[in-house]
Amino acid sequence: MADSVPEEKFSLKEVLITFQSCLTDNQEILTDSYVNGWRGLVRFMNSLGSIFSFISKDAVNKIQIMVTHQNGENGDKYETLQSMVKYELDNNLVDLQRRAEHPESGCRTLLRLHRALRWLELFLEKLRTSTEDSKTSVMCTDAYNDSLAQYHAWIIRKAATMAFCALPGRAAFFQTMNVGSTEQVVAMLGEAMPFISKVYEITEELYKQHNLLELP
Ligand SMILES: CCCCCCCCCCCCC/C=C/[C@@H](O)[C@H](COP(=O)(O)O)NC(=O)CCCCCCCCCCCCCCC
């Protein structure tokens, strides 16, 4: 019977490994895999409770903007982050000084996810090197303060740090990741992190080259 088939258990391993498939042989980043990685992360965050839904809403909105670009008539120009940047800049499709005619450019939208990827990188590294008595809320807050927080208004920072306090403790958090024992979680993080860092570095360099790191 269809309804007796157990639903496949969701594992964060597949999600984090998605970032490996973002990289092409010539070190470009595939938009589709990048966006898919975020989709999986948001799905994981949703499983942590509705207190995170204001974060999830914003992330879903940005994912949707990217998907709309990818499915649009110039979708082929969005195949990689490199081709997107070239296409949008060559065609004046990016608001460089203030949000005006192109408030939802791929470049500015992706930049928000890129900044969040730095938070993820820091948080995962803290989780990987944490000990039994480490607190997920503290690791998450520290990672946030060292990355995304500087781009957020006071009210968002307040709401985010309040939500972090609702994170499950380390043991329960690792269980939710559904990867296996603590040793397996640590090994998986060690495997996935170099790809996440690589994707972050390449994007950072791309945005730096084109002076896009402060897009409004
Ligand atoms: C695990 C707990 C989840 C912690 C999530 C940490 C990120 C906190 C971000 C708080 C964002 C609050 C919502 C509003 C954001 C916007 O103002 C702001 C600026 O956008 P705008 O220029 O269009 O106005 N948006 C952003 O900065 C983009 C935020 C994107 C957040 C994506 C978060 C996905 C989290 C996935 C968690 C996965 C955890 C895996 C750990 C093993």
TrEMBL record:
Its main location: membrane. GO terms for molecular function: ceramide 1-phosphate binding; ceramide 1-phosphate transfer activity. It comes from the Eukaryota. GO terms for cellular component: cytosol; endosome membrane; Golgi apparatus; nuclear outer membrane; plasma membrane. It catalyses: N-(9Z-octadecenoyl)-sphing-4-enine-1-phosphate(in) = N-(9Z-octadecenoyl)-sphing-4-enine-1-phosphate(out); N-(hexadecanoyl)-sphing-4-enine-1-phosphate(in) = N-(hexadecanoyl)-sphing-4-enine-1-phosphate(out). InterPro entries: GLTP_sf, Glycolipid_transfer_prot_dom. Residues 29-178 form the Glycolipid transfer protein domain. Coiled coil: none annotated. Pfam families: GLTP. PANTHER family: CERAMIDE-1-PHOSPHATE TRANSFER PROTEIN (PTHR10219:SF20), GLYCOLIPID TRANSFER PROTEIN-RELATED (PTHR10219). This is Ceramide-1-phosphate transfer protein. It comes from Acipenser ruthenus. The lineage of its organism: Eukaryota, Metazoa, Chordata, Craniata, Vertebrata.
